[in-house]
Amino acid sequence: MKIAIMQPYFLPYIGYFQLINAVDKFVFLDNVNFIKKGWINRNRLRIQEKEWLFSVPCKDLSQNKKICEIEVNWNTNFTEKFLKTLKINYNKAPFYQSVFDLVNKILSFKHKTISQLAINSILEFCNYLDLQREFIVASTKENYSQDLKSADRLIDIAYKENSSTYINAIGGVKLYDKAYFKQKSIELYFLKTKLNENYDKNHYISFFSIIDLAMYNSPDEIRNYLEQYELI
């Protein structure tokens, strides 16, 4: 049984979905501290051939609060402005309408917390891609030990989910030691994306939100991209 554990990101990049695709169980680790200027409530799009950073407005952002405690501030015009930006900049993309409608649906739920909104954005895109896995929200699990730190917490969750293989995003190479996981009877792998193809004939894949990729590719084509990685 393979497992991955990640903080929930709002409309994340393709590598996040590759990680989901690589495992049997995926845990949204939303009961850890919020990270300012991270990717929980922020992401990037390609606007007029330049990187454009957007942020979901939230109330009282603090790194002393858990992700599941951070509330979205819906008393802004973020939804209208964001959808307008998509319309202006992607309306000629081949899959514009289906992706626009999906994003509109995601933003229409008005979830209370950024955790709920981010998780829903991921699940909706997984449904769009027919990517079915077992998803677990850490804040709903009473048996997950919150007093453990770093690798020990991940190992503890893997144990409790009967998983013998843990797959982490490539950024974890500097954080986690394979030998330490092995001592705990857990095989540790890191997912390295191998995406380097054009996806709209003029541009190359980067770490933009999944929205950008989906505007130019069918679900079948994106599912092909989901397989373009290696475990190291």
Could you explain the architecture of this structure?
The protein contains 8 helices and 8 strands. The chain has 232 residues and is an alpha/beta fold. It has one domain (2-231). The protein starts with a strand and ends with a strand.
The number of helices is 8
- Quickly count the domains: 1
Strand content: 15-25%
Kindly report how far apart the N and C termini lie.
18 Å
- Strands ordered across the widest β-sheet: 5-2-1-6-7-8
Q: What global shape is seen?
A: globular
Helical percentage: 25-40%
Map the helices and strands:
Elements lengths: L1 E5 L7 H8 L3 E4 L13 E6 L2 E6 L22 H13 L5 H13 L5 H15 L5 E4 L12 H11 L4 E5 L8 H6 L3 E7 L16 H7 L2 H8 L2 E3 L1
Parallel strand pairs: 1-2, 1-6, 2-5, 6-7
Antiparallel strand pairs: 3-4, 7-8
Helix pairs in contact: 2-3, 3-4, 3-7
Provide tags for this entry:
232 residues; alpha/beta; six-stranded mixed sheet; two-stranded antiparallel sheet; 8 helices; 8 strands; 35% helix; 17% strand
In short:
This protein has 232 residues and is of the alpha/beta class. It has helices spanning 14-21, 78-90, 96-108, 114-128, 150-160, 178-183, 210-216, 219-226, and strands spanning 2-6, 25-28, 42-47, 50-55, 134-137, 165-169, 187-193, 229-231.
